[in-house]
Q: What sequence folds into this?
């Protein structure tokens, strides 16, 4: 889409909605790709299901109460809540079906419908294991961490030689120099990154 269709806001909105409906309704029989997952050792799934449950209960209660007072407001609220449930279902499926994927040149990070990035190994300056970040995240840092009420500490911090573009909702791109990752197999992920950096360094020397 980025290559063949102009970066128009309406087009990006339609693409986002298409992906949301696809994952929410048509992806349940698909098996997750092979890769390192980001969510299994967290309460992310439980938290998302709890949100969906709360929205459904709120929709039933408020829609019934508002129906007699304001039909228009009741329908607007119903639409927004149904859309929210579909989005949460789609996002949950997108997280489950798209683990971290690594090839010879890059690592592909995705966290549901919210953000994704292609990190080329040749652009990584350094890797920090178990960095102590705390609650503060500066504007030059993006995280791929499954959180709930609190965001846990990352397992890895990738420091980039040059900013990496992260694509969020509606195709909005923003660049960051630090990438925080918490995965279900931190040692395996770290080794994959180090192997990729070494491989790219060796290839560059051969060139």
A:
């Amino acid at each position: 889409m980025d290559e063949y269709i102009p970066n128009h806001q309406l087009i990006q909105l339609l693409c986002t909605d298409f992906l949301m409906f696809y994952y929410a309704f048509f992806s349940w029989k698909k098996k997750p790709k092979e890769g390192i997952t980001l969510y299994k050792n967290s309460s992310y799934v439980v938290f998302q299901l709890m949100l969906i449950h709360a929205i459904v209960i709120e929709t039933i209660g408020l829609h019934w109460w508002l129906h007699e007072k304001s039909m228009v407001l009741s329908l607007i609220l119903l639409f927004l809540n149904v859309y929210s449930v579909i989005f949460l279902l789609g996002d949950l499926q997108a997280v489950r079906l798209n683990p971290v994927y690594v090839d010879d040149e890059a690592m592909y990070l995705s966290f549901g419908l919210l953000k994704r990035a292609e990190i080329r190994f040749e652009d990584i300056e350094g890797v920090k294991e178990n960095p102590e970040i705390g609650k503060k995240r500066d504007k030059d840092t993006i995280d791929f961490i499954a959180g709930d009420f609190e965001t846990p500490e990352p397992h890895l911090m990738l420091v980039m030689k040059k900013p990496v573009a992260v694509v969020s909702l509606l195709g909005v791109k923003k660049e960051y120099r630090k990438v925080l990752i918490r995965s279900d197999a931190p040692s395996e992920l770290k080794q994959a990154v180090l192997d990729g950096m070494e491989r790219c360094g060796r290839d560059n020397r051969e060139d």
Remarks:
- The mean pLDDT is 87.
- The two ends are 33 Å apart (CA to CA).
